[in-house]
Specification:
The chain is of the alpha/beta class. It is built from ten helices and 14 strands.
């Protein structure tokens, strides 16, 4: 969905859920991108919300999301709350007729994601999902290698992600990321969603996928070990394994082609590697200080009608389908 809107002044943004992700990763980008302005933030904890507004130079703060959404001085909304409230707030933003960016995953279930998608589509309102890796220069370069057939025809993609059990996991302290009511797949929903979405950007839509999940550690209600296999519309096969109770952290992706391979990490800031008949190439491409900057910049270009954003409600909806097929069968 690409809808150009008339911009004669800065687009004034409001954030619902000014928590940790908005401190450095995303929030400042809405202030730094030319033509954008962050004018309001909302959090249910009034003291923390006021503190965020003061530290980031935001003139308005709210404890009521409806007040922020319906403020005539706010043109667009970024929802940065846990996934279980994305649909609740997103439908209110759609009803208000304002462009919206929703943190990933789009919602805990495909059904909720579809309701969100339809609400914005029916009103022809731009909807974006914060799968910002589609906009990061590092992965744009990987896509360039793929599209220019630097490794020939792509045959297969594989990803293994593991992490050690954290002190928080062992303590039993509450963590919404491992609460099955919010994210049945636990860290998989929170982390692996980025990679699965990126693979669709690089290699085409996934058209068939299956997975197995289990809880090996018994430390929390969400699943902590997941495996999956899939096939893209392009005929490329894929396989993944994610385990959140291992001795070491690993994050390794390989894209195998008829004439070489590409290697990189989804989360670790390692070089991207290309091996083909010409030899081996490594590139280290730094992330921006605010990792969502390019993503937010592309929102502006989309709203101006200059380009279609790579992560829209449509692509986010399909990623929700992929996640659901893996975790919920």
């Amino acid at each position: 969905m690409s809808v150009a809107i008339s911009i004669s002044k800065n687009i004034r943004w409001g954030i619902i859920g000014c928590g940790n992700v908005t401190e450095l990763k995303s929030g400042p980008a809405y202030q730094k991108v030319q033509g954008f302005e962050l004018v309001g933030v909302m959090r249910r904890d009034a003291q923390k919300c006021a503190d965020y507004a003061k530290r980031h130079g935001v003139k308005k703060y709210y404890v009521d999301a409806d007040e922020l959404i319906n403020d005539p001085e706010i043109d667009a909304i970024y929802i940065a709350t846990p996934p279980d409230s994305h649909a609740f707030y997103g439908l209110k933003v759609a009803a208000a007729g304002k462009p919206c960016c929703i943190e990933k995953p789009m919602a805990p279930t495909y059904e909720e994601s579809l309701v969100l998608y339809n609400a914005f589509t029916e009103k022809n309102i731009p909807l974006f999902v914060a799968y910002y890796r589609r906009s990061l220069p590092r992965f744009v370069q990987v896509k360039k290698w793929v599209d220019e057939k630097e490794i020939g025809e792509i045959r297969h993609v594989s990803w293994h992600l593991s992490k050690t059990t954290s002190d928080q996991d062992n303590s039993g302290e509450y963590n919404w990321r491992t609460d099955a009511k919010i994210a049945k797949g636990g860290y998989f929903d929170d982390l692996a969603s980025h990679g699965m979405d990126l693979f669709e950007y690089l290699l085409g839509e996934i058209i068939n996928i299956s997975g197995f999940t289990t809880n090996q550690q018994g430390l929390y209600s969400a699943q902590d070990a997941i495996v999956a296999s899939w096939i893209h519309e392009t005929g490329i096969t894929g396989a993944g394994s994610w385990n959140f109770g291992c001795a070491t952290r690993e994050d390794v992706v390989q894209i195998i082609g008829s004439k070489g391979k590409i290697e990189f990490s989804i989360f670790e800031e390692n070089p991207i590697k290309l091996t083909n008949e010409k030899g081996k190439t490594e590139q280290f491409i730094n992330h921006p200080e605010n990792v969502q900057f390019n993503h937010v910049q592309n929102i502006r270009e989309h709203l101006l009608g200059n380009k279609t954003h790579p992560s829209t409600g449509k692509t986010g909806l399909h990623t929700s389908w992929v996640l659901e097929k893996i975790v919920r069968g």
